């Protein structure tokens, strides 16, 4: 075997091993749903690289989810992509006779006969080819194939020919059979080998395991799982992992911060929140309303998403309770969450905020010296003497003002003035230090909007454009009942067009008439 091929094989083994440890760390989460993790599982012939077994777990449609089976495919370069035809080609996964679709069919028949009891996940640094038919049905949100799009078109259409080819390849006759098989499939673009290593260290530390020292050539966790496989040990519980890691001097132990706090989470992004259910007592999953960052239909913001947030919080949090709040969401959702959990809610909220050093619990501290924090730099710009509204542009993580100006011009909004707020050192992902800093900025902003808008402006619409950490957006949302009528906007990051904003939520939320 050539040196390049040997190196690729070793890197592939390391990639699989590190993804295994990524899943092992979930056993030690604050609210674990994982009961066992397998490596090179013996009970399944396909999708056996890494297996995660659940207890009391549901998918986003409320169906019981027993396990997730991973086929981990590492590639040294990016010179390839998933295609609909490649799904039928055994050589695409370095096999000789059985394609990935055929492996999926066999696994689904045994472990997910309804198509819902398990997920079978292709996890690879490669992506779905953007020009392939597969890209038109592949969800960037969670990696599933959208059957409604796949089922579109006559038998002679492009999608019809794709369905026919896959049915023939699988030896099935109906689209209903094909739908059941594909319902359990997920194709997810994995991180690079280096990225997984960096993220894994944070996971190991929070699980109570010894992180890998920077600069080391050898990774003790890669070696350990390979040795365990040689000993024919391939499935592990939390207790077994703890015993093994203590024996190998890899156990530090860990404690759960503020164990009595009730943990809730909301997600509209999957990336960085793949396992949020392990860290929360209750989770609102809004992924079904999005494809990547994009909303599937604009009306879903007001008709589905806001009512879901309001109902979820009302059902899971009570007056006087203390909670940790995870917000892996669009800024609009963070704002709406704060709006629902305003100061009158009586709920003691600590935000779990992602920072450059990992996740931190941001809880307000009454002893904090507020003089240490930077405060707003404010600029106002006259747009039109005939305008009636005010546009609010908050540039904390990056500048938004030029895009806001462009959007106002494109949409001919009746804006009188733009209020632009920045911090003295400029836009940065580290511009806000902690919860007290975020709350101070939110309070100051609220005071400015109350004092600097004229009475006619306060009676009109406040258009809100924000680039800021969700913690700050949440605190602003808590105060937004004093803003009057306001509209929040989301930026389309997939567009290269200046001013690519879209309205999302209106506050106060309009009353939706009940169906007769």
How would you portray this structure in words?
With 516 residues, this protein is an alpha/beta fold. It is 33% helix and 20% strand. The protein contains 15 helices and 19 strands. The chain has helices at residues 3-24, 100-111, 133-137, 147-150, 158-170, 175-182, 193-207, 220-230, 238-247, 300-316, 331-340, 401-411, 435-452, 455-458, 470-479; strands at 34-39, 50-54, 67-72, 118-124, 185-189, 235-236, 262-267, 282-285, 290-291, 294-295, 322-328, 348-355, 358-362, 377-382, 389-395, 415-422, 462-467, 486-491, 501-507.
Which of globular, elongated, flat, extended, rod-shaped describes the shape? globular
Rg (CA only) = 25 Å
- Please report the total strand number as a whole number: 19
Largest β sheet strand count, sense and barrel closure: 6 strands, mixed
Sheet with most strands: strand arrangement: 5-4-3-2-1-6
